[in-house]
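Predict the assembly for these two chains.
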Amino acid sequence: MNGIHDLGGAHGHGPILNDPNEPVFSHDWERRTFSLFASLFVGGHFNVDEFRHAIERMDPAHYLEGSYYEHWLHSFETLLVEKGVITAAELAQGKSDPAAAASNAPVLTQEMVALVVNTGGSARIDEEVAPKFRVGDRVRTKNINPVTHTRLPRYARSKVGTIEIDHGVFVTPDAAAHGLGEKPQHVYSVSFTAKELWGEDASPNDTVRIDLWDEYLEVV
Amino acid sequence: MAHDHNHTAPPNEIELRVKALESLLTEKGLIDPDAMNELIDTYEHRVGPRNGAKVVAKAWTDPAYKARLLADGTQAIAELGYSGVQGEDMVVVENTPDVHNVTVCTLCSCYPWPTLGLPPSWYKAAPYRSRVVIDPRGVLEEFGLTIAESKEIRVWDSSAELRYLVLPERPEGTDGWSEEQLVDLVTRDSMIGTGLPLQPTAK
């Protein structure tokens, strides 16, 4: 979707606020919110693409005003209600409805944390899928404007670039964010010159490399 | 306050929302507060850019390791024990006299947690994410970094599940330094690409 999250190339967002003494968490509610992610992910309540898409669907003004972990909180609330894990009434009261069905979803325990943290969950898929392109190929990104989830940023649509790395076969977020399966396909690092992306006034030497899925690309 | 994306004084409303959600999920038996405390302790105290600095210092002193690191970042980083969540598939990109690398996630805030820890606020906020792809030189100037016009600035926008770590150039004047000494020169920002390693001073 052409959402507020798709920030690449936007102007007017002000200076970068770099505080070298910033702590890992600034507030206790950030700690709690951060640790809910792995807990709910292990419970199988959503995948990472659904999680990101729920953030993208935030009201744009709220997105820009809200801090990072507020985005996470919004995503948890949205997805858990949408998927029926909790009801809006339960969320409003912070109390479970005694009539609600008990869940048998797996629960992340303290003993499981080290293994989960050290293993993670790769989006790579061990499956033979023929790549449409080879390293060195010239490609053009498609001009797509889906209202659904995509990882082709607006600033890189209808642009000509070069395949630099074939990363292998991965889950496709455009499908996985909407319950449409993994749709395994190749992901490439595609190089674009600054001039191709931003026009003649851009630096002649600089480039941007973006990781893009096979289906975003066509032969020049 | 439109420009203050750090929001150091959050409205109380957020705290209440988090408390409500956490107690609801606990009551339903969907989360275990002990697991949450373990996760917080892990990322607040045990994982951080010191891990990435050890990877860089080893690459600076061990050419065979550097070759493995650039060929298969995931495997070579796992040799040092840094793998897992948000570092499942790693790519290490090397700074050279001709290329300066810098990383961003314009669509969200993807970042290599096992090697760098959790990202700083500025990495996750609109000013950096919007501007580093269109004006990398201006952004790096804001970090106090001037890159020669003749050099390519290569911005990596991590839109997929690959996570990037910059291998900065080893500072001059560090011949004969041990891996352990070199670790102290490697800053977090030098592995993002918004900084350079510290320069050696008398040690």
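Chain B has one domain: 13-192. The first strand of chain B starts at residue 90 and ends at 94.
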